[in-house]
Amino acid sequence: MKNKIKLPGARTKFSAIILAGGKGSRFGSSIPKPFMSLNGKPVIQHAIDTIEPLVDEVIVVSKEPYKYYKHAKAGLTRAESVYNGLKKCSNPKYVIIHDGARPFIKSGTVNKMKQLLKDGVKSVDTVSEIVDGFI
């Protein structure tokens, strides 16, 4: 096995695909969940604000472009949407895929995922403990 040499200044490339192509039909709203307002801004923007500073590029997968972010067209299924997002990635080494209707991702979680991927873990899934507010 050859030794990998890391060049000075070279860094690992990370892309983030934010999925926002759902219809929100189970939610019962004419506005898809990622684009509903939460504390004065769209739900999707909360996730993007956390993830964007930690990656090299953000691709939003949706029916229509969202702001100035790189856009991929939503597919008929989640898998097709992910594939469309992957095709828009600019030669990344790693890809983080996040549901745009989930606004509460933390930067520590993203950093932990990045480190696990750099350490050779093939796939990382996030799970957050749900704290029951009622006893």
Q: How would you characterize the overall build of this protein?
A:
This protein is α/β, with parallel strands linked by helices. It is built from 3 helices and 6 strands. The strands form 2 sheets. A 4-stranded parallel beta sheet has the order 5-4-1-6. The longest helix has 12 residues. The chain is globular and about 40 Å long. The termini are far apart. The N terminus is likely disordered.
List keywords for this structure.
single chain, alpha/beta, four-stranded parallel β-sheet, 24% helix, disordered N terminus
Largest beta-sheet details: 4 strands, parallel
Regarding quaternary structure, how should these chains be classified?
Answer: single chain
Low-confidence stretches: 1-7
Number of DSSP strand runs:
6
Order of helices and strands: EEEHEEHEH
Helix and strand content put the structural class at: alpha/beta
Please indicate the percent range of residues in DSSP E strands (runs of 2 or more): 15-25%
> Percent helix among the residues?
10-25%
- Report the mean per-residue pLDDT as an integer: 85
Topology:
Layout: E1 14-19, E2 37-38, E3 41-42, H1 43-51, E4 57-62, E5 70-73, H2 78-88, E6 94-99, H3 107-118
Parallel strand pairs: 1-4, 1-6, 4-5
Antiparallel strand pairs: 2-3
